[in-house]
Amino acid sequence: MKPAPFAYVRPARLDDVLAELAGGDGKVLAGGQSLVPVLAMRLGRPATLVDINSVEGLDELTRDGSGDNAVIRVGAAVRQRTLEHSPLVAAVPLLPLALPFVGHRELRSRGTVCGSLAHADPAAELPAVACCLGATLEVAGPGGRRTIGAEEFFLGAMTTGAGPEDVLVGVEFPVGRPGEGHGFAEIARRHGDFALAGVATKVTVGGDGAVASARLTGFGISDRPVTRDVTALLRGAGERPAEQDLRSATAELAAEIVDTGGDSHGSTGYRRRLFGVLAARELVKAHTRAASTGTEHPS
Predict the structure, then answer these.
(1) pLDDT for 53-88, tens place per residue?
(2) Where does the record place the FAD-binding PCMH-type domain (predicted)?
(3) What is the residue extent of each domain of the chain?
(4) For every residue of the chain, which 3-state class applies, written as one string?
(5) What pTM was estimated for this model as a whole?
């Protein structure tokens, strides 16, 4: 199929982007890797595509702040492949673990980080990473700029806290700190396909090696990323938890949060089993990395 007719504009200023979006019948175009298929299948029929690639500053990838407030800021036009190969990505260890799973290399060369977040596919990797890390998203709209926490941004399948006249201009990922460890895994029919189930984890240990906090975000299992504090779960597995020690608890967690309907690729029960296994495995990996010297290497 071909898209329905639309107008195309390429403003050079953010104010002009917002003016074009006024009225709610426009759609932002950055990388187009999510939007173009939607248009081709006529699942969306915007009157105007507003290309933001010429807007100054939206292609910036920077490290801002210091200490506990340090963040990696990713502008709306930054490609996934650019972030994947930037030296800055090592400062947020969960990102290099997750980015190779985002589509295929060719798609990441064009697709943007913020585009994936704004599209809010329940099976997408980057929304889950944002939720697990507590990232902050910056949205510009008719009323000015505002920030939204990742967990509040994703409201449902392809539904976010950004309105039809808003544009997501950037996202800030907290820089990793000593004593933190992360894990990421997903199961898909083929590499690059949408995940049947996936998990992102973050574990923090104190100076005595004890678990201080643990977070887990599942994706592909509901209509949005689902995040849980699993500190008590990990502490209950002992000082040096093994995957088998967590299986029972993660299976119970899966029964609670995996509510996506079954389809030709897998039933709800199958996805629950996948999630339970992945959650246990990646919590152990995150704990091991957190308890190590503090240098994480994607694997």
Answers:
(1) 999 999 999 999 999 899 999 999 999 999 999 999
(2) 1-178
(3) 7-51, 61-174, 180-290
(4) CCCCCCEEECCCCHHHHHHHHCCCCEEEECCCCCHHHHHHCCCCCCCEEEECCCCCCCCCEEEECCHHHCEEEEECCCEHHHHHCCHHHHHCCHHHHHHHHCCCHHHHHHCEHHHHHHHCCCCCHHHHHHHHHCCEEEEEECCEEEEEEHHHHEEECCEECCCCCCEEEEEEEECCCCCEEEEEEEECCCCCCCCCEEEEEEEEECCCCCEEEEEEEEECCCCCCEEEECHHHHHCCCCCCCHHHHHHHHHHHHHHHCCCCCECCECHHHHHHHHHHHHHHHHHHHHHHHCCCCCCCCC
(5) 0.94
